[in-house]
Structure of Pre-mRNA-splicing factor 38:
Amino acid sequence: MEVSYENEGYDNDYQSKSKGSILTRKNNTMPVWGNERTMNLNTLILTNIQSSHYFKVNLYELKTYHEVIDEIYYKVQHLEPWEKGSRKTSGQTGMCGGVRGVGAGGIVSTAFCLLYKLFTLKLTRKQVTGLITHCDSPYIRALGFMYIRYTQPPGDLWDWYESFLDDEEEMDVRAGGGQTMTIGNILKSFLFKLEWYSTLFPRIPVPIQQQMEKKMSEKYPPVVEETPRRINIPERNFRDRDDHRNRGDLSDTARPRERNERRERSHRDYRDRDYERKSSNANSRERSPYVSRRDEYKKSSSRSPKYGSSKRRDRDDYKSRSKY
């Protein structure tokens, strides 16, 4: 007789959200996709985890699945692979200074140490389901989803994540705080973005990525903005309006008399206004205070018809007096 493992290994706090026969004895053993020794982690992160005092001393004493869960509940406060300010990449260039986790390391985070500790326990399917449905801390759930992203075949990721894409439980994922994300947004980032802060997830084959994008578009169809409907206005309203497209079609007799009178009045106003502007400009030139000064200067320097200019007249008088 086939034995069901649906309730084995769960506390009362666990709430299973799985569908179908995911917790049967046949598929209770979790496969490991990729490198079974490194958990597909970046080499630099894995080296720092294995050489850290926290992993070698503190986590070495934890032997059971529930002890690791309690440690996650008390110690994990963010989901970055490095502690804040511990990794210096400002003076490095190229591959050593990028976000690929290659270059000078730092203090590896508690979250990634516990993530690798979960990998060493060789979790079963019901244990992973207990992680992602845990109700005590969102960081326990997040590490469960990250464990799935690193260790499970890409073709199974959508089946694991689909029922949690609308989860609104929030957590702060940045070291030092400042970036709050929901579980649903974190899972969408895991599915469709290769980078997670300063490390990379295992690559997803292009055909599987396209299938997930198609399923995502079916689950969340794009919202199309409705164009406002055009109101059918009667033809007479268009004829009453002074539209430049209809001026040639309508004769002067068809237009209202008031409109013609208004146009003639406006033309007269413009004409009178132009006349007043011209006359005001002419008067302003005549009333200029500089006109009288200019005329006096012309008179003083003008040549007399009989004696010439005043300067020449004075010069001739001086010469005539000097002779005597």
In short: The CA atoms of residues 85 and 106 lie 8 Å apart. The first strand starts at residue 170 and ends at 172.
